[in-house]
Amino acid sequence: MALRAQRALVGLSIVFCLLSPLFMVIIAGVILLFYPSLHRDWGSWIAYGFLLYALVIGLYGSLAFLRYRKEGMALAERGDLQAG
Questions:
Q1: 50 contacts 23 by C-beta, under 8 angstroms
Q2: Are 71 and 2 in contact (CB under 8 A)?
Q3: Closest CA to 31 of 47, 50, 52
Q4: Half-sphere exposure of 38 toward its Cβ, with a 13 Å CA cutoff?
Q5: pLDDT (tens digit, 9 = 90+) per residue, 14-37?
Q6: What is the CB neighbour count within 10 angstroms for residue 32?
Q7: In whole angstroms, what is the distance from residue 75 CA to residue 79 CA?
Q8: Please, which pLDDT band fits residue 84 given cuts at 50, 70 and 90?
Q9: Are 10 and 69 in contact (CB under 8 A)?
Q10: Distances (CA, A) of 23 to 1, 40, 42, 55, 66
Q11: Measured between alpha carbons, how far is 13 from 15 in angstroms, rounded to an integer?
Q12: How many whole angstroms separate alpha carbon 67 and alpha carbon 73?
């Protein structure tokens, strides 16, 4: 995993890490469109749950990729990675 992360383009990889949370935010937006009131509608609580989940997944996924990339670069400097 570290070898592939080390070779990947950073910007494009972060975009791919954020695509799934983007769709979760879209789902939350649609739910909030139909259930806008926090006090009357239970659906708004579900929408805020989707938003929070998207934030956590987006943040953790991006940080995990950057950690794997850093590990791959460290392994490449030591010469521990196999070519191919």
A1: no
A2: yes
A3: 47
A4: 2
A5: 999 999 999 999 999 999 999 999
A6: 19
A7: 6
A8: very low
A9: yes
A10: 25, 26, 21, 11, 22
A11: 5
A12: 10
CA neighbor of 2 nearest in space, from 66, 76, 79, 68 = 68
Tokens coding 57: 């997944």
> Do 23 and 35 contact (CB within 8 A), yes or no?
no
The amino acid occupying position 42 is: W
What pLDDT is attached to residue 7? Answer: 72
**What distance lies between CA 76 and its chain's CA centroid?**
25
| Ranges of each domain in the chain | 2-78
Per-residue pLDDT reduced to its tens digit, 24-78: 999 999 999 999 998 999 999 999 999 999 999 999 999 998 898 888 788 778 8
Check: CB of residue 50 under 8 Å from CB of residue 32.
no
Give the chain's radius of gyration (CA, Å).
18
